């Protein structure tokens, strides 16, 4: 196989990264940004004074890419190449290239705000514009200027606005690398469909399975319930095909973030001979990952995304149209190990006229109170009003968020986070539920007869019992049980414990 496009220009990449504190690299999906750039920089001796960290917006990508690069470098994961995600890290003092989620890199700042373990940080899939990535942009932009020991930042994506990124990063160079691995043939619906997208996607997957040549199929849907329904329908349709249709065997594989890691890993296991895999996934499969064997992509054009309604103050997960950037990323899951085809279940006019060019950054579609609380939990002393945002929220809205958090007791008058604020940041509920919940809790605590209290503890809120430490302990106990319902017992170490022992 010919060299990947990124390898063709490796000398240019090395000289540009060495000569600049920040470099933006744009290259087609599958051209080798995630797997090759860190190796190129390692081979050029750029990991001598520190390691190379490569951030990924999703855990599944961090793990699968680390495995691939370790395979290419003929080492075990955890030696020269490692990964660090919530609850799991495979790295050691030998590790030079570390793939980690952007949340994990943020938590590294907890112990070392200079990130002194790293000589190079690659912010991959920068177009995703998660809250964490946007904060890292601001933090690292300042760190590359101020850190004594040189730090190089590389920002990569197939689909970002190079000019905007360059002007944000003080006019840094933008390397645009041409060429892709294999061609991907795109097709759109000729006219708007009348069926719901779920039905369309199931029908398309069955059609491809029956009539197209060998190759796995990747179908994009929006969430777990839909995926389970699609998996059940495809499985039952294939099982009920009349024998004369000579339907070949197929394995149907779901993929979504809430699946246990060992089930997610099934996506990377090759199909048995003569068998086709049909993978039904959320946008966890949209960027970064290579699923060897995928030839056909079915793009429904929708995604489930966090949205904030300023009128109700509620955050909701809403099914909404993807952006053009996401459509390009989805089609880019084909054409990585062989030529591919992408079937878009929407018209060309929809793509041209209805789809937004880019995904709205998370900071602009999330509750600002939650975002500000998140910023305040960081040890970075972020000044939320003057932080160097790439797309800054309105100042008035930031001030409202600060005021509201102060009224909830999450911040002090000076704007510092309180212990209650830290608890609130851990709870799995939308912030708009906190005030009623705390009120209900206080009322219950005040009203309950003392013998009903757990473990016959005296009621810390009852009249006459004024022991503040007991009161605090009970609040912590209550909050802990709430956070446990969110899936993580409070006594466990924080999932984002930094990568101790790595590099
Ligand atoms: N697990 C894998 N199995 C087989 N081939 C792989 C695997 N991972 C990567 N590759 C090969 O390496 C190429 C480069 O992958 P890489 O993830 O570095 O591309 P990329 O430019 O980062 O893509 P994207 O923009 O989609 O993240 C792929 O196109 C594919 O040919």
TrEMBL record:
Residues annotated as signal peptide: none
Record domain Helicase C-terminal: where: 205-379
Location of the Helicase ATP-binding domain: 14-178
UniProt keyword Membrane present: no
Recorded coiled-coil stretches: none
Lineage top rank: taxon: Eukaryota
Enzyme kind, highest EC tier: hydrolase
EC number of the protein: 3.6.4.13
Pfam family, one: DEAD
Catalyzed reactions per annotation: ATP + H2O = ADP + phosphate + H(+)
A GO MF label: RNA helicase activity
GO biological process assignments: mRNA processing
Keywords linked to the UniProt accession: ATP-binding, Helicase, Hydrolase, mRNA processing, Nucleotide-binding
SMART domains on file: DEXDc, HELICc
Protein name as it appears in the record: RNA helicase
Organism: Symbiochloris irregularis
Highest classification ranks of the organism: Eukaryota, Viridiplantae, Chlorophyta, core chlorophytes, Trebouxiophyceae
């Amino acid at each position: 196989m010919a060299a990947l496009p990124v390898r063709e220009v490796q000398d240019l990449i090395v000289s540009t990264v060495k000569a600049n504190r920040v470099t933006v690299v744009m290259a087609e999906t599958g051209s080798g940004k995630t797997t090759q750039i860190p190796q190129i920089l390692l081979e050029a001796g750029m990991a001598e004074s520190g390691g190379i960290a490569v951030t990924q917006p999703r855990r599944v990508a961090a793990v699968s890419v680390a495995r691939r690069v370790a395979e290419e470098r003929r080492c075990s994961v955890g030696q020269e190449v490692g990964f660090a995600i919530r609850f799991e890290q495979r790295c050691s003092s030998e590790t030079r290239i570390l793939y980690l989620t952007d949340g994990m890199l943020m938590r590294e700042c907890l112990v070392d705000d200079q990130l002194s373990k790293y000589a190079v940080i690659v912010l991959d899939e920068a177009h995703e514009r998660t809250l964490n990535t946007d904060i890292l942009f601001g933090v690292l932009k300042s760190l590359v200027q101020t850190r004594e020991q040189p730090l190089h930042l590389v920002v990569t994506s197939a689909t970002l606005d190079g000019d905007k990124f360059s002007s944000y990063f003080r006019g840094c160079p933008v390397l645009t690398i041409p060429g892709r691995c294999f061609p991907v043939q795109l097709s759109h619906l000729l006219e708007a469909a009348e069926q719901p997208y779920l039905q369309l996607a199931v029908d398309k997957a069955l059609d491809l399975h029956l009539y197209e040549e060998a190759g796995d199929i990747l179908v994009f849907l929006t969430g777990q319930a839909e995926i389970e329904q699609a998996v059940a329908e495809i499985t039952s349709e294939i099982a009920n095909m009349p024998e004369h249709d000579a339907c070949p065997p197929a394995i149907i594989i779901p993929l979504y973030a809430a699946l246990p890691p060992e089930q997610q890993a099934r996506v990377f296991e090759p199909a048995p001979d003569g068998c086709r895999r049909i993978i039904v996934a959320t946008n966890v499969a949209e960027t970064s990952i290579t699923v060897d064997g995928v030839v056909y992509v079915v793009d429904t054009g929708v995604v489930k995304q966090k949205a904030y309604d300023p009128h109700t103050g509620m955050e909701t997960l809403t099914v909404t149209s993807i952006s053009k950037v996401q459509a390009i990323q989805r089609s880019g899951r084909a054409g990585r190990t062989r030529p591919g085809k992408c079937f878009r279940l929407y018209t060309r006019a929809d793509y041209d006229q209805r789809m937004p060019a880019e995904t709205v950054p998370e900071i602009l579609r999330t509750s600002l109170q939650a975002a500000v609380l998140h910023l305040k939990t960081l040890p970075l002393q972020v000044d939320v009003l003057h932080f160097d945002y790439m797309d800054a929220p309105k100042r008035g809205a930031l001030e409202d968020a600060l005021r509201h958090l102060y009224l909830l007791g999450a911040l002090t008058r000076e704007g510092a986070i309180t212990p209650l604020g830290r608890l609130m940041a851990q709870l799995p509920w939308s912030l708009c539920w906190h005030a009623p919940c705390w009120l209900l809790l206080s009322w219950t605590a005040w009203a309950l007869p003392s013998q009903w209290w757990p473990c016959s503890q005296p009621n810390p809120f009852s009249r006459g019992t004024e022991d503040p430490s007991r009161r605090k302990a009970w609040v912590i106990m209550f909050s802990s049980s709430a956070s446990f319902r969110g899936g993580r017992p409070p006594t466990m170490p924080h999932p984002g414990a930094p990568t101790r022992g790595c590099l």
